[in-house]
Amino acid sequence: MEPDVIPLSEQSAENKVMPLESNTNDEEDFDLGANVVQLRVTDGIRELQTVIRDKSTPRNDFIFYADRLIRLVVEEGLNKLPYRECSVTTPTGHTYDGLRYEKGNCGVSIVRSGEAMEQGLRDCCRSIRIGKILIQSDEDTHDAKVVYANLPKDIHQRKVLLMYPIMCTGNTVVKAVRILAMHNVKQENIILLNLFCTPHGAKKIIAEFPGLRILTSEIHPISPSHFGQKYFGTD
Amino acid sequence: MSENVFKFRPNGSASDSSGEDQEGQERDALGPLTINVLSPGIMSPTALSPHNKVPNSPSKVGPSRKKRRAPGASKPDEARVLHTHGRRTLYTAGRPPWYNKEGQLKDAFVIGLCGGSASGKTTVARKIIEALDVPWVSLVSMDSFYKVLNHEQHERAGQNEYNFDHPDAFDFDLMISTIRRLKDGKSINVPIYNFATHAREKEMKTIYGANVVIFEGIMAFANLELLELMDMKVFVDTDSDVRLARRLRRDIAERGRECQGVLKQYMKFVKPSFEHYIEPSMRLADIIVPKGGENDVAINLIVLHVHNQLQARGFKLRGQLAQSSHNGQPMPGTLHILEKTPQVHGIHSFIRDKDIGRDEFIFYSKRLMRLLFEFALSMLPFKDVLIETAQGVPYSGKRIAADKIAGVSILRAGETMEQALCEVCKDVTIGKILIQTNLDTGEPELHYTRLPKDIKDQYIFLLDATVATGAAAMMAIRVLLDHDVPEDKILLCSLLMAQSGVNSVAYAFPKVKIVTTAVDKEVNEAFHILPGIGNFGDRYFGTDYAD
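Structure tokens for the assembled complex are given below, as produced in the milestone run.
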């Protein structure tokens, strides 16, 4: 079960088109439309990405920095959820014009690496419902196959934060969204929370599900595909 | 013994109501804290007159690292309570502002204390400190500034043949630079002189935070430059017979020395030196205290004068800050406000709501703090790096260029932010500063500081949950500057600030980065931010309920 793996042929192809000097990570290079949103990359976020990608990073640092990046992606993802205006009275007796989040959201993690993001979501929304989908990709054909899914019953009425940190080919996510669609979840109600995404992975998702929104921290042809193994320590 | 002890007791009920890990983590630090004010040498029995030192107790030479109680604290603690307001109890006077609203320093008041050996200088100093009854008095003894002896001098000292009663025995240059820094309100490192080896210990005693400095020693008036630094010069004049009698009794009874040796040294060095250097310097004194430490009238007069001097220097800082003309000015360029995303706005709506439960208040505060620190971290300098990825492809990324980062929290509310800082910043060191408002004057007062050692080389995240007038934040920044932290390495991080506070801080310290999640427009007469968030510390720690 390793959906993170990039097919070998593709990786070597990318190596060729990615000489060192063009190793920029700007999303401007990839026209992916309005539904692919990248976090505003500050120096702090670039450091997180650097540490996660660095092969010499010790595992405890890796988890620490990955959790920080996950938290930032989750916080930004929550910004996409609906809210309404309201005003509250402060302890000084004055009125503050604020807003309230709407109920009716849920998270769905794609096992295994998506589970790394569950805690980050839990840390922001303590009682949010979280469903799981387990997808296994065939070692030889890289075909993704659904093994298990357990989702909230009323998921079709909810906004869904789909969690999957590393997207290479996009095959796994396509499968997962199909499962959601089978449960009558609208594309427009799905937000994919993602840390690292390849341009062609993103393109594939958009082509298949034009209403789905993708939030990522970096769009780059090379994805840190060791993420799941290093995070869970199975490498 | 000159230490002033200060105790701070958090409300016992604060830490047990909801079991947050942060409170558990900080319980130790909130103590009861005992603070000692610096008095190198005064209590060490060996420091009184160096030539009599029998080098048998080197361990006693340096000021003990153990916290000791001042004699004043031997009374029941209740006797020392200065302010009680609601649940808050202060056990000592804090240090009032020692800088003006531009953040510039006012000089410390330096008292020079001179007199012959065994004349009772130390007793006088101790009595002045006791009578002042404030913790921001530092005592510096000349004994700390004896020169390091070479081997041959060291041998002679062992045979009572080295003259410790001569100006040449002291390192006046170091003394002058030390007293000057202390007068400027900066932190200093006083050497610890080891009378057994006649060398300085590797460790230095750090002294910080003096509005009053007492400098005592037999040659205190022997250097012109030093004299110019003194605001008041006191000579303790005790009869020679009395002094000799005291020396004999002390050296023989307490230090087990031979009567002959003591007398020989007295006649050879101590007496000529007194007549030659010390007694003539009496004419430089402003006040001459006969009979030394028993002269309560003279000591009371001195204390009265010092009090008057300190009062003349004080002023209403906070009132000035709140009403200062900064209001309505554009926000300074050093202010950085976290983007008001729906989440940030929503979190504010929760934590500002007076009816929210404590559980949710704490939860959402922590979320906001985490966002704040991620935001603040990205303001530190970064450097470009080229790393090798696990996929074997080079990747040009960034790493933080700041070597070390320290958090310094302003107690109590700033402490709530420490955990969030630790969550985004591995291995961060944490310092603490306790500043409380004096309810009589409305002024902030400094009660306690514990800062990481090499703080001047670090980037400092100064933490306070809310900043209204900016008075406490300015005091904390001043403390950091006094410890030689460069102004541009300080980031003041808070959840909520008032415009006036932003302007006051930015005006006084234009290089300090101000990082916050929201800025409110007003501050009311009680110095609360409007619409504000209430008393953050009380709400977080649960000490805010009525009755």
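Chain A touches chain B through 51 residues (CB under 8 Å). Chain A has seven helices and twelve strands. Further analysis is deferred to the final report.
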